[in-house]
Amino acid sequence: LNCLITGATGSGKTHFAHIMFEFAKDRGLINGHEELVVFNCADYAHNSELLMSHLFGYAAGAFTGANKEKEGLIAKADGGMLFLDEIHRLPPEGQEMIFYFMDNGKYNRLGETAKERQADVRIICATTEDATSYLLSTFIRRIPISIQLPSFNQRQTKEKIDLVKLMVGIEAERIQRKISLTEDVVKALIGSVTYGNVGQLKSNIQLICARSFLSHMDKEEIVITLEDLTEEVKIGLSLLANNRQFLAELAQDL
Q: Of 173, 206, 232, 243, whose CB count within 10 A is highest?
């Protein structure tokens, strides 16, 4: 089903969309050769004509420089999914064209008058804003599923630890090494996430794993300790110092 994902910047909306797509492929709902088609509406927010030409394609002669026809992302996503990030930046006329497509599966390229083209596309939208403030009510009504992602600090302790494990595992796979973290490092990483949510955690983990890899390239296992952390990440440990309840939960789940 078409769905809308809302959440603060860095809360994992794009990652969640990719997981949804991989799940659909795993269940055979989407062919294995399909890719998730991604479009950031903010990139063309001030040029609605260019934005619509990217989404729906254009006919030859539709505008100056359009010497031949070109298919858009809707056609590219046929049989799969289209991820529209920062959907609140989509102008009203764009929203109208999208919800007409949701209703009928039909669309036209820029420069065409009849909506005779067809595609089978599930649409995933994402926004950091209040959807009712920026999106047409007629558009919102056509999206049956709304998913609110919590910020990093709203997540349960076990979830935070699982996210650290997941992201360290990704880095271990990247450098083909086993990576181990001391308990204080895990605490510092979790405490260091102050504004950027999951995205900030990911950046911090990539940074300390890269630094540790450069220092221990000759070793099969990389053990990351407090000495390997940047000052910005180390501060996370002191930020948690006064939260005794959280530290107790953390020690229990580690």
A: 206
* Residue 174 · residue 222 · CB < 8 Å: no
What is the pTM for the complete model shown? 0.81
Taking a C-beta distance cutoff of 8 angstroms, is the pair 197, 154 a contact? Answer: no
Which tens digit of pLDDT belongs to each residue from 24-55?
Answer: 999 999 987 888 999 999 887 778 778 888 89
Q: What is the DSSP string of 98-117?
A: HHHHHHHSEE--BT--S--E
Q: How far apart are CA 206 and CA 201, in angstroms?
A: 9
For residues 94 and 52, give the distance between their C-alpha atoms in angstroms, rounded to a whole number.
Answer: 7
DSSP 110: B
With a CB cutoff of 8 Å and minimum separation 6, the contacts of 98 are 55, 84, 90, 123, 139
pLDDT tens digits, one per residue of 175-219 = 999 999 999 999 999 999 988 788 899 999 999 999 999 888 888
Task: Tell how far CA 125 is from the center of its chain.
Answer: 10
